[in-house]
Structures are given as structure tokens and as C-alpha cells.
Amino acid sequence: MPLLDRISIDPEVVHGRPAVRGTRMRVSDVLSLLASGATQDEILEDYPFLTVDDIRACLAYAAAQIDHTVLTAS
């Protein structure tokens, strides 16, 4: 399964915010945990329904969202 297929957006789940497929764990929650210094192992211990690939998918999703063309003046 490609990583981004692990992320779903469903208006019936967490108000349509991106979440790990099959859970109510928002991508932003995983990213916030990582940003606050939580390790992958700590996240997996606290949220045993997540997998390493789910965490990687959240990072891949975030990276895809900020990827854009930079326009510069000539």
C-alpha cells in the first residue's frame, strides 16, 4: 500500500480533517506529537493502533501539502 493511501479525508470522520485510515487519529495530532519531541516508539506505545508506516504516511502527507512552486521576480 502506498504511504499516502494510509491517509483518508472523510467528512464523517474528525470533521473531514486528514486522518490515519481506519482511525480517528488526525495527521495533525501525529505531527504535533513528533514536533513536541515524542519518538516514534513512544507514539506507537501510546497509540498501539498506529504503525510505523502510519507515522511515515503522516510525514509524507505533510510534505506533499507544503510542496509548491516558488515564484520569483525576474
UniProtKB/TrEMBL annotation:
Gene3D superfamilies: Winged helix-like DNA-binding domain superfamily/Winged helix DNA-binding domain
Domain of life: Bacteria
Protein name: Antitoxin
Species per Swiss-Prot/TrEMBL record: Gordonia phthalatica
